[in-house]
Amino acid sequence: MQATGIATFDQLNAGVFAVDAELRVVHWNLFMASHSGRPADAVVGRPLFACFPELPEAWLRWKLRGVFLLGTFAFSSWRQRPYLFKFPHHRPLAGGIDFMHQDVAFLPVLGESGVTAVCVMITDATDAARSHRALDAAHDELRREMAERERIEDELRTAHKLEAVGQLAAGLAHEITSPIQYVSDSVSFVGEAFAEMRCIVQTYRQALYDGTRVAALEDIADLEYLERQVPQAIDRALSGLDRITRLVRAMQEFGGAERVTDGSKALADINRAIETTLAIARSDYADVARVELELGELPALHCRIAELNQVFLQLITNAAHAIGDAHPAPAKGTIRIRTWHDAHAVMISVTDDGTGIAEAIRPRIFDPFFTTKPAGRGTGQGLAIARAIVVDRHAGALSFETTLGRGTRFVVRLPRHAPDSP
Amino acid sequence: MVALAGPEQRDALAELVHIGVGQAGASLAQLFETFITPSISRIEIVQPHDFPQAIATVVDEPGPIVAVRQAFSSRIRGEAIVVSTAGGRDALADAVSFPGGSSDELVLEVSNVLVGACVGRLAAQLALDLSFAPPSLVGPHASVHELLEAGGLAWRNALVAEVQFQLVDRAFRCHLFTLWPDESIDELLAAVDAFLASLM
Question: I need a labelling partner for B63 at 20 to 30 A (CA). Which of A111, A262, A284, B171 fits?
Fold first, then answer.
């Protein structure tokens, strides 16, 4: 190496040394001397590994051999191998870093006969390493927090689903109680009537046999009354059974789609889904609101219908609560549900004439855990989950407009050709 | 192939890359003292919107992907990316002797040799001097998909060389991509033209 080159190497804030084919040190710059505590005249001309037995000899020999053999650059990064030489880093605030972290480059020195030496350049990477370690630690922490948040959100979603199932079960029990009562009353009446009719029939048989009079018995049994009432009682019982059947079928439709399609999308009838949801949620709104339906003709939509049922249920329940707060019983409000579509999307609006939403809380109604309802009436997850189902799972939009004291209108927009979402 | 590379340029580039790959195979064989068979299954120039499809065969392979990036510069500049699989990396680590180093270091070493030989040889044949930045593993903060997604690529064309290396009875398969910024493509093709002219 020429003298001018050596002077330049000494000015570098990097370690530079060179070894020949026998791995004897042929150059040792000022940086190497000052950081190793070994001046050039104590090192140059001597075998590298004799001077520094602490070096990773097998690995370093392999690297040097590669450069001599191929005549190409080689490298080593602090990320895989923090340091080659155990140099102090002279930083009081090193963030737990023990020795100077080093990036190392191996450069072939070419002569007429090929590679005559390998120049090794060591760059101080301690600051970069410290920053990267801090970044790695922050990244790991962020990942842990995200995983924890996902876990909590999963649990909350499950809790909300269970809560909704509980509410539905209570509502369904309430809805079924009434028809069961009149089915039971009617069947009891028919049973009693049958006993009386049987008695009359036996009396007629006896009269036919021995020729006695039966008119007085017919009067006692009020045969005309039985002939009039029994068919009506049977009709009432059949009507009640029909209502129970429809409720159970609605319940199956409400939750069954998810099982059928295993959560993936399938073609579904949005209008039918709304009618189904109304049927099973009747106990939530029937005491406080009338329902007006304006269901337009809709194309079948590729969607997760069981999840959308959950959205419709949430909007209907919220509307009923808002109306219940605004119209003291026995006054009733109105829930108006409308569906329509254009070339790109299917729209569903749920409008109530309830309390409306105060301006201060409008920006937060889709936030998880946000609720204005008293304890036991909602977890504050309903609209957050509804929004996630519409926006994240169906690439749609859930918006609202509201006037305090006059009511709220929610609009669900579902694209007709949405890409599959997770 | 894009229109900016004519048939003669394309054939010349392919031939030069073949020579570079041969050099890379020879270099690896020397370094690891084992019999190595390099093979080239594809060389082409693709544009950003075709790039995801061009690498689909790589990233669709089962198991995690291992990618190494390495920049090079001089009159032409660009970046080389060597993509292999974690399974291939482990097979490589089993097959060759790399004293005292981790499997990640080994992949970096192999990638460096490949890029140095392929790109370096290509540049040398075109009388272009190159210097290389240190190779680095992609990640853990960026996936290969993020690295290569078309929208984020600030280049017009990529020279894609699909290279396979067979080490004795173990398969280590890797794919070498080189990405060139616009002005380097022009410089590269001008150098190819000069190379072709020198053969006349």
Answer: A262
